[in-house]
Amino acid sequence: MRFRSYKVLSLIFFILGLLFLMNSDSGLLGVSIGISNLTSVINNILGSSLVLISLVIFMVSEGGLEGRLEDEGGRIVDAKTFNNRLKKYNPEVIILDSSILLAYSHKEIETILKEETGKTIIPNAVFREIRDPYLRWVIGRYCQKLEPPEMYKKIAGDYLRKGTKPQHYNKLMKIMEGEMEPTRKGIEELKKEIIKLISRFEKEHNRVPNKEETAREFERHYKVSAADIDVLASALYEARHRKRTVVGEKDLDLKEALEKIRRRGKKIGGYIKDIDPYYK
Question: Which region holds residue 74: left if phi is over 0, alpha if psi is between -120 and 50, else beta?
């Protein structure tokens, strides 16, 4: 009963915060909408503070930040198990997303890549996301860096932009910028998405993000990325040429797009499998 009261209180603070932010000249994520004045600044400060208090109360009611992190990602299997999942389908081509390359240690990634019998492709856009010098060297040694054809990029982008995350992003941005009337369900969704972002950021940087960093994280995690487009485009290209293709990923948007492609028929979808690293 106590936690239910916390959630109600959290919702009240969140709604009040949104109302103050909508009356300011900048949205929740600091997007400028008009000319700032003293009233707008006060509304912005009050609104941001109330939203932050709401998120803290909500995290307490849910059992803390660590609980949210465990629910969000799930535990991943060791590198050997993941490698066995890839090999199960006897792939001719393996395409790895950056989410997989960053999920394991240098040694584990090197082991996975060394043991693969098929051609391992890392699209150029994925390679650009990798900042670690040693990991870039490992990729250069064991993988082929390729640029998928533009035609397949366009098809991949169309599939990905119809996914849950991009659609969610568009709706939540309209609520945050005051372009859409917020409903109770919409407010709850917005609050949960912001908590996920804060959780991820704190895990990576050991601190809570400020408003500008939250805005960047929101865009990075929910908009369709060039890397995701290139991964899907590369898979479509290889499958179109009748190559048994396995995509290693841990992202909802890629998984949804691949499921849609498989439902459309076996001519291309029948040649593509996607493997994630989570415990089943």
Answer: left
What residues are paired with 275 via a beta bridge?
248
Cite the beta strand spans of 199-279 per DSSP E: 245-248, 272-275
124-to-99, 111, 141 alpha-carbon distances in Å = 14, 21, 15
Work out the number of other CB atoms within 10 angstroms of the CB of residue 38: 7
pLDDT in tens, 127-186: 999 989 999 999 999 999 999 999 999 999 999 988 887 877 777 677 666 677 767 776
pLDDT computed for residue 232 by the predictor: 96
Please state, in angstroms and rounded to a whole number, the distance separating the CA atoms of residues 6 and 59. Answer: 9
Q: Which fold has domain 79-162+224-275?
A: Rossmann fold (3.40.50)
- Confidence check: pLDDT of 191 > 60: yes
Q: In this structure, which amino acid lies at residue 127?
A: F
DSSP-assigned states of every residue in 239-259: HHTT--EEEE---HHHHHHHH
pLDDT band at 19 (very low <50, low <70, confident <90, very high): low
Q: Where do the structural domains in the chain lie, given as residue ranges?
A: 2-72+164-210, 79-162+224-275
Classify residue 116 as left (phi > 0), alpha (psi -120 to 50) or beta: beta
Name, in order, each residue with C-beta under 8 angstroms of 48's C-beta and a sequence gap of 6 or more. 17, 21, 28, 211
Residue listed under structure tokens 């991949």: 156
DSSP, collapsed to helix, strand or coil, labels residue 274 as strand
